[in-house]
Amino acid sequence: MSNHRKVKPAGTSTSESDKVIALYHRVFATEDFDTAADMIFQTVKKAAVEHAGKPRHLYLDIDGHRNDAGGFDHDMCELQKHFLIGYLMHWLTELHLPVMQGSAVRNPNQREDLPKHLNVLSGMDADDREEALRQSAAAAGAPVFDPGTGEHVAADGAQSRMPSEG
Fold this sequence. Notes:
The protein is of the alpha/beta class and 166 residues long. The protein has 2 domains: 20-114; 120-166, no CATH class. The chain has helices at residues 33-50, 74-85, 126-140; strands at residues 21-27, 56-62, 94-96, 104-106, 144-146, 151-153, 159-160. The strands form 2 sheets. The chain has a 4-stranded mixed beta sheet, covered by helices on one side. Strand 2 (56-62), helix 2 (74-85) and strand 3 form a beta-alpha-beta unit. The chain is globular, with a radius of gyration of 18 Å.
């Protein structure tokens, strides 16, 4: 047996404040968009509370959820494209998704102000969608994520890619 000493590259730090928080979630074939989105949101929120200010990297795996052509089904496309990249990425530094095939999405400006709750509404008729989203946002006292558009809808009907600040 030989003793090996790890040598730290010049200009790097191993202090506690420099560590990355690695988050992992596996979407099972039995989970739908709402379930997966809420579980991932809760994971990121817990990490943000327990390790505030530290870079968060999310790694995602998806079981099943394939269409006839072998791609991801509608729920998992929405989860990866609109919810994770389009919305939750604001609170992550790096995101690794199956749809990215080994590449990562990076965000050098990770935010710390996650909403208190995640409200996701789906499966509504187009005629009732706008009003239902506004009502849900008003009842929750927080913007509601619309997976159909990838936007957040406030109680006043305003839509944005990010929740309102304040």
